[in-house]
Amino acid sequence: RKEYVDLYVNYVFNESVQKPFQDFMQGFLRGCPARNWKMFLPVDLQVVLQGHPTVDWHLLEKNVEYRQYNKSDKTIKDFWNVFHELPEEKKKMFLGFLSGSDRIPVYQLECFRFYIVEPQAKNPDELYPSASTCSLIFYLPR
Questions:
Q1: For the chain, what is the mean pLDDT?
Q2: Predicted local distance difference test score (pLDDT) of residue 22
Q3: Domain locations in the chain as residue ranges
Q4: E strands within 28-70?
Q5: Are strands 65-67 and 137-139 parallel, antiparallel or unpaired?
Q6: 80, 131, 141: which is closest to 101 by C-alpha?
Q7: pTM of the model
Q8: What are the residue boundaries of the HECT domain, all occurrences included (predicted)?
Q9: Which residues are catalytically annotated?
Q10: Percent of the chain's residues with pLDDT above 70
Q11: What is the torsional sign of CA 96, 101, 102, 104?
């Protein structure tokens, strides 16, 4: 029985996925040659591929650009006060809502910018906050 279980486990975890994995690896290495990745330690490679797992939220606030708003407007002050009181998980959810990812790309940690824009509606109470993920614009009604 032990031999059967060992052979079955080997088949499921190794042999059955060998062809799909080889196809994936061949395609991946065609676009990203292995010689370019050898300079990274595994932890650094993970950051390059997935982005930073942690964010300096005060730096993010500092890098925001405002349109139809000033940094001193009550709506902006209230937004940042509430934002900084949120738990880490909710802040990452906001980042996902804004950019489509809960991580900031490795090359943009210090220069990641997004815009907070007033949508200029006749009745702002009828609008919800929205985002344009491609342009990194957060539409925040007054």
A1: 87
A2: 92
A3: 1-50, 57-139
A4: 65-67
A5: unpaired
A6: 131
A7: 0.67
A8: 1-142
A9: 134
A10: 97
A11: negative
Residue type, 3: E
What CATH number matches the domain at 57-139, 3.40.50.2000, 3.30.2410.10, 3.30.40.10, 3.40.50.300? Answer: 3.30.2410.10
Encode 51-62: b = buried (16+ Cβ within 10 Å), e = exposed. Answer: beeebebeebee
> Contact 125/118 with Cβ under 8 angstroms?
no
Lookup result for tokens 């991946």: 28
pLDDT in tens, 37-62: 778 888 877 777 777 778 888 888 88
The partner residues of 138 in beta bridges, in order of sequence, read 116, 131
Query: What's at 19, amino acid-wise?
Result: K
- Give the per-residue pLDDT at 42: 82
Tally Cβ neighbours within 10 Å of residue 142: 15
Q: Which residue has the tokens 């937004």?
A: 79
Q: What residue has token string 């007054």?
A: 142
